[in-house]
């Protein structure tokens, strides 16, 4: 599996850098995980967006879905070159208004996932875990043979993330706050991300969903401190990780 970061800011794009989006490629399959603001533009630097096999959305906050509508227009307007008759868009069905938007006649088909059975996309197994967030959101564990990538999606810290992330090759965390942040949170701090990686015994940690106004190096240093010996990297556009 090859994962390429297409955008990594939380909340809104800033100075040419987009919000959440990751291209996952495996055996000729192109899967887009989240489709935030700026992601479609960035995706076109790597593949023709008409060559996507599937889109998987963690939740329906705009910083994870802002470019979905224009991606559907791309598929609507360039019919001849698309890889499939319909683009498969996976999302949860806990929010029927947003879920309904995934289906566009002649263009895309919404497919619901759930947290009690895995969803297979090609040879990849997707498992989902409901997170703690103001709207229904799902972390995902993507497994090929015995190797997994875990993406926390947006979430406050909770203990269930440790089991869900256990022994994964790569853990991508929602790290929107520095370690000294206090009060009610819907995202994790650098400390929580680092400690989660350590408790789950993951091979590598990638902090993402980063804040616009705190230096990435500072976020990385703090996370690495709590992750101990686990190699930690901050997400940046174009970063590729092979698992
Ligand atoms: Zn977000
Ligand atoms: Zn969110």
From TrEMBL:
Tell me which UniProt keywords the record has, alphabetically.
Zinc
Native species: Companilactobacillus mishanensis
Could you identify this protein by its name? MBL fold metallo-hydrolase
Q: Which InterPro entries match?
A: Metallo-B-lactamas, RibonucZ/Hydroxyglut_hydro
Stored PANTHER family = METALLO-HYDROLASE YHFI-RELATED (PTHR46018:SF4), ZINC PHOSPHODIESTERASE ELAC PROTEIN 1 (PTHR46018)
TM regions (residue ranges)? none
One of the Pfam families matching this protein, by short name: Lactamase_B_2
| Top-level taxonomy | Bacteria, Bacillati, Bacillota, Bacilli, Lactobacillales
Ranges for domain Metallo-beta-lactamase come to 18-209
